[in-house]
Amino acid sequence: MNAFAGGHPSRSPVVLAAGSPGGQLFWITPMLLRLAFVLVVLASVPAHGQVTSGDGAWIARTVADGHFLVIEDASTGLAVHRRALMSRDHLDTRAAALLALPARRSFLLALDGAPELWEIALDVDAGPFHDGFVHSWESGMEESLAAEEGRFARQRIWLEAPLAALAPMPGKRHAVIGTRPDGTRVEINLAVKRELGVLPAE
């Protein structure tokens, strides 16, 4: 219906008239203004719990209030990997921090309240990563431990205490900085899979 049919203003709550370069006239209602404002606000808010791999091929995000990790193909937006976050003690947990590691072609995730990290490999030839300790690598001597290999294989790294945040360590390819809930900062070497020590306070 024309907004000015019969020469009388429409009862529509029109508040602003605008025109296009082609000469078309259109109307903006309060509802459209509110919607536009919401979209602008959402676009300006950074996404939490989401990181992109160094090569831009994969997006890792946490969903369900941080209780699940989902990895998407960045070119299609399709989810290609999903797993529940559960500690080695089989306790349901959530993500405390998520970090992309371009140098290692992986994602790193800290579990909330659990003293462990998960490194999720992005290489097709990654692993195998064993969920435990292997006492001997001699033929036939390897323990029957659950193992993961290939792209999206998980490697657990045991910590001395849970972490609340993760950050890259400048100048060190295989190290990250972990921050505990009490503010203590520790260096974690991912190549040897353990904490190396407490860092000086900032």
Please provide a written account of the structure.
The protein folds into two domains: about 40 residues, no CATH class; about 150 residues, YVTN repeat-like/Quinoprotein amine dehydrogenase (Methylamine Dehydrogenase, Chain H). The N terminus is likely disordered. Strand 15 and strand 16 form a beta hairpin. The strands form five sheets. A four-stranded antiparallel sheet has the order 3-4-5-6, with no helix packed on it. The protein has a four-stranded antiparallel sheet with strand order 7-8-9-12, with no helix packed on it. Strands 13-14-15-16 form a four-stranded antiparallel sheet, with no helix packed on it. The protein is mainly beta and about 200 residues long. The radius of gyration is 25 Å and the shape is globular. About 5% of the residues lie in helices and about 40% in strands.
The number of helical segments is 1
> How is the biggest beta sheet arranged?
4 strands, antiparallel
CATH class of the largest domain: Mainly Beta
Using the 3D structure, state the CATH architecture of the largest domain: 7 Propeller
Number of strands: 16
Percent of residues in helices: under 10%
Q: From N to C, what is the helix and strand string?
A: EEHEEEEEEEEEEEEEE
Domains (count): 2
Whole-number radius of gyration? Answer: 25 Å
Q: How far apart, in Å, are the first and last alpha carbons? A: 65 Å
User: Overall mean pLDDT score?
Assistant: 79
Considering the protein shown, what is the CATH homologous superfamily of the largest domain? Answer: YVTN repeat-like/Quinoprotein amine dehydrogenase
Topology-level CATH name of the largest domain = Methylamine Dehydrogenase, Chain H
Strand order of the largest sheet: 3-4-5-6
Low-confidence stretches: 1-18, 35-48, 133-144
| Global structural class | mainly beta
